[in-house]
Amino acid sequence: MTQPKHIAIIMDGNGRWAKKRFLPRFVGHQKGLRAVKKVVSHCAEIGVESLTLFAFSTENWKRPKDEVSKLMGLFLSALQNEVSKLHKNNVRLNIIGDRTLFTDEIQQHILQAEHLTENNSGLQLNIAANYGGRWDVVQAVKDWSNKNPDKPITELTEADISMNVCLAEQSEPDLLIRTGGEQRISNFLVWQMAYAEFYFSDELWPDFDENSIDKAIASFSNRERRFGKTSEQVTHDSH
């Protein structure tokens, strides 16, 4: 079975999971963290190279202040309590997005977590926090411009942007999974997912588990990835 090297996930449905059970939305986010642990562990076990999770988008700041505050608390708690376990399991942690809006305490823990795990050789776990795909492309263009102050913008190429977006040092996502029944990418990795296969699940994120990941990978393995070529060319190239 063909396995994706890089899986990206939009973890949707925590609030609805809680609402269905007449619980506060935050309980759904807590249960969602449990699902994260299961999925990270399983991806590490089966040899996925990179896993990128959309935890908090640049648009999520528009949510009620109380919910945002509790989400930030959950993020800090995870950084304080889960990173040592990731390190023990040879997982390398990388936080992508604009960190400047996070508290100094969260920013400090992010740096500590990345430093602790930077030499690990197992699963590369990327957490997208205060991340937006359009922001990422704009930052890439700015970075290129800063590195090449003497070059006119007309010399900027697709390859230049690819080398300056987040996750440039990793393979591009092969498979995007979105839970919760919605079918859109919500400004997530818009540049990097140009050729990703999409898999939409009706399961709400807190219910997503190892079996759910295996189903998504099975669906992926049955698809023909042509990258602009014809089926005949793909078949010929594989022989």
Low-confidence stretches: none
Distance between the termini: 17 Å
Beta strands, count: 6
Strand arrangement in the largest pleated sheet: 3-4-2-1-5-6
Which architecture name does CATH use? 3-Layer(aba) Sandwich
Mean pLDDT: 92
**Tell me, what's the shape?**
globular
CATH topology: Undecaprenyl pyrophosphate synthetase
Please state the structural category: alpha/beta
The top-level CATH class is Alpha Beta
Proportion of β residues? Answer: 5-15%
Using the CA coordinates, give the radius of gyration.
19 Å
Provide the number of structural domains.
Answer: 1
Give the CATH superfamily. Decaprenyl diphosphate synthase-like
What's the SSE pattern?
Answer: EHHEHHEHEHHEEHH
Report the helical percentage. Answer: 40-55%
**Main sheet properties:** 6 strands, parallel
Question: Secondary structure elements and their pairing?
Answer:
Layout: E1 6-10, H1 14-20, H2 25-46, E2 50-57, H3 65-81, H4 83-88, E3 92-96, H5 104-117, E4 124-131, H6 133-147, H7 158-164, E5 175-178, E6 197-200, H8 210-221, H9 231-238
Parallel strand pairs: 1-2, 1-5, 2-4, 3-4, 5-6
Helix pairs in contact: 1-2, 2-3, 3-5, 6-7
